[in-house]
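Chapter summary example.
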Amino acid sequence: MNRIIILLLVLPLAVCGQGTKRIQPGKMYDAGESLFAPMFGFRATVPAGWSGLLPRESEVFLLNSLTSPAEIFVLARQSADTETLKKEWIEGFEMDSQIRLKAKAATISSGVLSSEVIAVGNFINKSMRAYAVAKCSQSGPCITALAVMPAAQYEEVKKVVDNFMMAATFEPPSSNSLYSDFVWKDFLTNQMVTTYAFLENGSKETTVNLCADGRFQAKVTKKGILKNQNPAYKGKLSGTWTAEGVGEKGMLHLVFDKGLPPLDIELTIKDEQIFGGGERYFVALSEQCK
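The structure predicted for these 290 residues follows.
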């Protein structure tokens, strides 16, 4: 499979809602939400009765039916055309080391390639069928939607895939940074930021809860998120917070209630990981913020 396609996590895939927000691994997207992969210039909409997900540690954008075991895998290829893909589908390609996929009757209509796909291998579920549709832009990128569904639902899911791909559009690809429109204030609101210090007597964690009302609550060890700052930053602390910045770098400002000096922390995001002052920060939804 990797010989033929580049999978979507390697690319900047975004969800367009309020502005253009990048898709977040592990987050579910509902029917009607718009998907955008700027490196390919590909736009599509999550179908009615389906949800979308970019699983963590995965390279495939996945659409799941809300009423059946059917799934649609959205795959991408940097440069190709439908005639080349058709030949490859007819010849067959490796899905993995145990399963080979081959087009049953590949056809091209209105620039869209489609075919039922037959799986060959030792571990094939005979009660399932597969269907694939590919669409390419004039700029070169191609998107393939590969659906796997119970045999009894083949025609129903086939129609969903056809409509999904026919309604999809292409625009000129963009190589903008994956985080070019990453808004730090939005990202940090109602989140808990955690760091860990690994000591001889065990590990300790520092947490800072950043609530939407502009207040924060923190529990700080002598080592951790503020380890290179004033040693008075320890124990239970509170105050107000603000954040600024759009893109890979941002700034977190903390103003303390106890008269401690305010603190500015420069933040960066890279490969979905958050860093501040060279330290790894872990960000999760805060249970303290109401």
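To summarize the output: Residues 44 and 168 are 4 Å apart (CA to CA).
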